[in-house]
TrEMBL record:
Organism from which the protein derives: Photobacterium piscicola
Protein name (database record): NAD(P)H-binding protein
Lineage: superkingdom: Bacteria
Gene3D superfamilies: NAD(P)-binding Rossmann-like Domain, UDP-galactose 4-epimerase, domain 1
The NAD(P)-binding domain, residue ranges: 6-180
Alphabetical list of SUPFAM superfamilies matching this protein: NAD(P)-binding Rossmann-fold domains
InterPro entries reported for this sequence: NAD(P)-bd_dom (IPR016040), NAD(P)-bd_dom_sf (IPR036291), NmrA-type_oxidoreductase (IPR052718)
């Protein structure tokens, strides 16, 4: 039996759909069962902050698809340790942990990198059999900026010439589900990226080519960009993390290209040029 955490999020729902399509036996771990309005499936109450609740949820579970919660770094580190402790005490056979591509950079400025490094290390020390998937930046993360640029002819960001091998949530979700249901894919470290890397100026060029626009790229300072994110109602800790992520982007941390997702999903991942074209066609 598989349990998926983070089931109510965008990625979690895509993983659930993949598991349903594959007729896998699973339960979705959610914090508020009465408020769940996602894909119809069996639900289990979990709380990253409550060890006994998680131990109860993990009874009769063999495999956990572990998707991070939504909290500041220090809080999230403890939450992840709680989950691993509960899994160990309940003799979970395997954990598939969704990590992040920047864990290989010890100087990463993205605050969540430290949380992923800690979780990977703690998971390894636990002795639990595990698979780690290090994902690149989701292309959906810039959807709002793409739409704003289509409306206003200006694309705003704070990165210079650094490139990102964007990956879609759908490709990540399919890969996580495939690993969960295929034991022969487990006990490895994977890196999920797109097939090509793009700078933000490249993104603007693709928008202009696909949408017949004359959008200009506007480079913001870190301070101005952070203020813009806060004005858009992002929590301050998240706005700061995304702003400082610019350093990792410009240092080349996101430009790495890997074929792992092609191998697992048996197809090429969605390219951001096609993603941009789909937004242009529907907006």
């Amino acid at each position: 039996m598989i349990l998926i955490t983070g089931a109510t999020g965008n990625l979690g729902q895509l993983v659930i759909k993949e598991l349903l399509n594959n007729k896998a036996e699973f339960v979705a771990g959610v914090r508020n069962i009465n408020q769940y309005n996602g894909h119809h499936c069996n639900l289990e109450y979990i709380d990253y902050d409550n060890l006994s609740v998680m131990k109860n949820a993990f009874k009769n579970i063999d495999t956990i698809i572990f998707i991070s919660g939504n909290a500041e770094t220090e809080h999230r580190i403890q939450q992840h340790r709680n989950l691993i402790d509960a899994a160990k005490q309940e003799n979970i056979k395997h954990i598939i942990y969704l990590s992040f591509i920047t864990v290989t950079d010890p100087h990463s400025k993205f605050s969540f990198t430290r949380q992923h490094i800690d979780t990977e290390s703690y998971l390894k020390a636990s002795g639990i059999s595990h698979t780690i998937v290090r994902s690149c930046w989701y292309m959906e993360n810039i959807k709002t900026e793409i739409i704003n640029a289509l409306d206003n002819q200006v694309f705003i960001d704070n990165s210079n010439t650094g490139k990102i091998s964007f990956i879609s949530r759908q490709d990540v979700a399919k890969g996580l589900a495939q690993i969960a249901i295929n034991v022969n894919l487990q006990d490895r470290i994977y890196t999920f990226t797109g097939s090509a890397a793009y700078s933000m100026q490249n993104i603007v060029d693709l928008m202009n080519a696909n949408c017949h626009k004359q959008i200009k790229y506007t480079l913001y300072s870190d301070n101005d960009y952070k203020k813009r994110l806060i004005d858009a109602k992002l929590p301050e800790f998240l706005a700061e993390a995304i702003t400082l992520n610019r350093v990792d982007i410009d240092n080349g941390d996101y430009a790495f290209i890997c074929q792992d997702v092609n191998f697992i999903n048996k197809k090429s991942p969605l390219d951001i040029s096609d993603y941009i074209f789909s937004i242009c066609c529907t907006h």
